[in-house]
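Sequence design from tokenized structure. All designs in this work follow the same two-part layout: the structure record, then the generated sequence. An example of the structure record is given first.
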């Protein structure tokens, strides 16, 4: 492996790490909003919950894409991240107004699992970055 290949892999790994961190944060925020939504009858909170969950889903997609790019460059398969959808929850909130929103609790679980998967994948990418930096330092001496 030459210095150019290592630089390219480091760039992809740093990009994946950044996207994973953003996705974990986005999932955590969406999970908090889901908690509010589960106890609220506010349509504004329901809409905010849907927006945050959609944003989390987009962040997860970006993280998955970055992992796929890195895995392709490494020649390995990447870890799948679960994407979440909140449209059914919003529909229930607008059509039926329960005192406790069960679907928000289910979404919270999925969002928390997705955030956990992102943090775990970020740790694995960190280990890869460490190994790549070590290989790069061997080439410079």
């Amino acid at each position: 492996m030459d210095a150019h290949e290592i630089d390219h892999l480091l760039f992809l790994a740093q990009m994946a790490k950044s996207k994973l961190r953003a996705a974990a944060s986005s999932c955590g925020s969406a999970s908090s909003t889901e908690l509010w939504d589960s106890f609220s009858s506010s349509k504004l909170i329901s809409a905010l919950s849907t927006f945050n969950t959609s944003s989390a889903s987009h962040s997860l997609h970006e993280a998955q894409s970055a992992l796929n790019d890195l895995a392709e460059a490494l020649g390995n398969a990447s870890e799948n991240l679960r994407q979440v959808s909140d449209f059914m929850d919003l529909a229930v909130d607008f059509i039926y107004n329960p005192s406790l929103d069960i679907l928000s609790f289910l979404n919270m679980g999925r969002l928390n699992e997705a955030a956990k998967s992102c943090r775990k994948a970020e740790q694995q990418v960190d280990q890869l970055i460490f190994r790549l930096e070590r290989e790069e330092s061997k080439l410079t001496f």
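The chain has four helices and no strands. We note this feature because it recurs in several other targets discussed in the main text.
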